[in-house]
Amino acid sequence: MTTCDELAEGDPRMELLGRIAEAGRLSRAGKLVAEVVFQVADRELVIAGVGKYNVVIDGNAQHILHGCRDSQSQAREGQLCKHVAAVLLALEESHALEIITGLVAEPRTWHMDVIQ
């Protein structure tokens, strides 16, 4: 798991996430990394809590489920909210890069839905 102190400007995750998350959200995501608690973090499925929110990333189905208010509007634009970005930054780097690269390279194959 990555800590906020380990995130550097040249971090490839940050560079790729910058294409699918606004700079302000990405900055706030870096501050939330320490709050990410993983229940599951394997190659097929990631389930994590960030503060009072849950994030589910199903790599096989290319599906992200999350429920913050910002996520609802960002998903329509193909962008990520700070909570989803924080989970991706907290994941082991190579695992995170697999997911982020897919989101950037093939955004239409990924689905983002809201947890009610």
Written account of the structure:
The chain is an alpha+beta fold and 116 residues long. It has one domain (4-114). The chain has a 5-stranded mixed β-sheet with strand order 1-2-3-4-5. A hairpin with a 2-residue loop joins strand 2 and strand 3. It contains 5 helices and 5 strands. The model has no long low-confidence stretch (mean pLDDT 89). The protein is globular and about 35 Å long. 40% of the residues lie in helices and 22% in strands.
Key terms:
alpha+beta; single chain; five-stranded mixed beta sheet; 116 residues
Strand fraction: 15-25%
Instruction: Provide the number of structural domains.
Output: 1
Count of separate DSSP helical elements: 5
Number of beta-strand segments? 5
Going across the major beta sheet, what is the strand order? 1-2-3-4-5
Give the H and E element order.
Answer: HHEEEEHHHE
Outline the biggest β-sheet.
5 strands, mixed
Distance between the termini: 28 Å
What coarse outline follows from CA principal-axis ratios? globular
The structure class reads alpha+beta
Q: How much helix, percentage-wise, in residues?
A: 25-40%
Q: Provide the gyration radius in Å.
A: 12 Å
Low-pLDDT residue intervals, each spanning 5 or more residues: none
Mean pLDDT, rounded to whole units?
89
Topology:
Elements: H1 12-17, H2 23-32, E1 36-41, E2 45-50, E3 53-58, E4 63-66, H3 69-76, H4 82-90, H5 93-105, E5 111-114
Parallel strand pairs: 4-5
Antiparallel strand pairs: 1-2, 2-3, 3-4
Helix pairs in contact: 2-4
